[in-house]
Specification:
Length: 413
């Protein structure tokens, strides 16, 4: 997912190429999920004829200031991206538009043509972004609820240490909490903790002032370096854990040291046990509780402690009742969520060939999707699994209520 450096690169590109120019044409997608509350025609009418005065960013949000309100704001979500035709803007792993693709992309949510002919587009393939039209984006959620921006409003060492000393949660979960500090996401949190030699599960309040000094220094240095190369991750230093954090367990190494994967703050987390050790008392507490997580799965035993929509909490499973074990179900993945959900609606029939047939269906679907599978990672699956699970729970609850009502009716008779 795009984090502070990727969104700052988009903001700088808009600032350099679009500020001071008038909007000649605007096309807004009819997508209530991404663009809630404003009809596309009203959104378009609010922008056409306006001049772009400035481009702003806070955390993982960006908004354009026009010569008069309302202003468009962009919450990038998992795959939001800005593209300017003919201009190289940083392309991160999830970007949906290639140079050979149609323009504007079929995933475009807001397309703008400027008076001088320059065109730009905000796209979102995964549809977890939000595009809003508001008079003052900084004064309303989600931007108004963000903590200090990690780049624009850096904390002093004393402020940082005092804030951490009051937090009784894991340090990675705290870094992901956008109300504490905004802009840091999953890859940045892993990177700064690796460089600071801090275990992602260590309780924030247990960090010494010396460790706080090191961590704050690493946060500032990672942001500075990433911004210096325009968030082009191919230019990130070769000794960063970033380059190995999505490799398979057992094959992931950095600086000759083995990378392991756990769940921290509700997210798949890469760390190096050899140099990121838990303090003795905390290590005892997590012994036997740690759940291994594979890169790209987001599976683990910890809930999400960050409490913000960019870092979704994994849905918790129900406990079986009556001492009976529920029938085993195949775990959901982003490539077969829909088919699994449909299968759950149908009666379960034992069949020796069912597993083989399902495997063939999944394989065929993956082959058809091709490179789309490479876009999936922990946050996608957590979000999609949560939606599917919530849907199932809603139907189960409705069925339960219907059964209870029927029993009451019979008793009354």
């Amino acid at each position: 997912m795009p984090e502070l450096p990727e969104i700052e690169a988009a903001r700088r590109a808009i600032e350099e190429h679009c500020v001071g120019k008038k909007i000649k044409k605007c096309t807004v997608a009819d997508d209530d999920k991404v663009i809630p509350g404003v009809p596309s025609k009203d959104f378009e009418a609010a922008l056409v004829g306006k001049t772009i005065v400035a481009a702003h960013r806070k955390g993982k949000n960006m908004w354009l200031e026009l010569d008069s309100p309302p202003f468009p704001s962009f919450q990038f979500g998992m795959a939001g991206a800005v593209y300017i035709k003919g201009v190289a803007v940083t392309k991160y792993k999830r970007s949906a538009v290639k140079d050979t693709d149609e323009w504007p992309s079929k995933y475009s949510k807001l397309f703008v043509e400027l008076a001088d002919g320059l065109e730009f587009s905000f796209t979102d393939k995964r549809r977890f972004a939000k595009v809003r039209l508001v008079d003052n984006p900084a004064s309303v959620p989600p931007i108004s609820e963000l903590g200090p921006d990690a780049l624009l409003e850096p904390m002093t060492v004393d402020e940082f240490h005092n804030s951490l000393s009051k937090k009784k949660i894991g340090i990675k979960a705290l870094l992901l909490d956008q109300s504490f500090i905004s802009g840091i996401g999953n890859w940045m949190a892993d990177e700064v903790l690796y460089q600071a030699r801090i275990h992602p599960l260590q309780t924030a309040s247990s960090l010494s002032k010396e460790s706080c000094v090191t961590l704050l220094k690493c946060i500032n240095e990672v942001i500075e370096m990433a911004n210096e190369v325009g968030a082009d991750n191919s230019q990130f230093p070769s000794d960063w854990i970033f380059h190995s954090r999505e490799k398979k367990p057992g094959k992931a190494f950095v600086d000759g040291k083995k990378i392991e994967f756990i769940n921290a703050g509700g997210r798949t987390t890469a760390y190096v046990p050899e140099i990121q050790e838990l303090p003795g008392n905390q290590a005892v507490k997590v012994t036997g509780k740690k759940s291994k997580a594979k890169p790209g799965t987001g599976k683990g035993d910890s809930g999400n402690e960050s409490g913000n929509e960019d870092e979704p909490e994994k849905p918790k499973g129900r406990k079986s009742s009556g001492g009976r074990k529920p029938p085993s179900k195949k775990k959901l993945s982003s490539s077969d969520n829909d088919s699994e959900y449909e299968d759950d609606k149908k009666p379960r029939v034992k069949s020796k060939s069912k597993g083989g047939e399902r495997g063939k269906r999944v394989a065929a679907k993956r082959k058809q999707e091709g490179s789309d599978d490479e876009l999936d990672n922990a946050s996608d699956e957590d979000e999609e699994a949560e939606e599917v699970t919530n849907g199932k729970r809603g139907k189960a609850a409705a069925a339960s209520k219907k059964t209870v009502a029927s029993k009451r009716k019979k008793i009354s008779k």
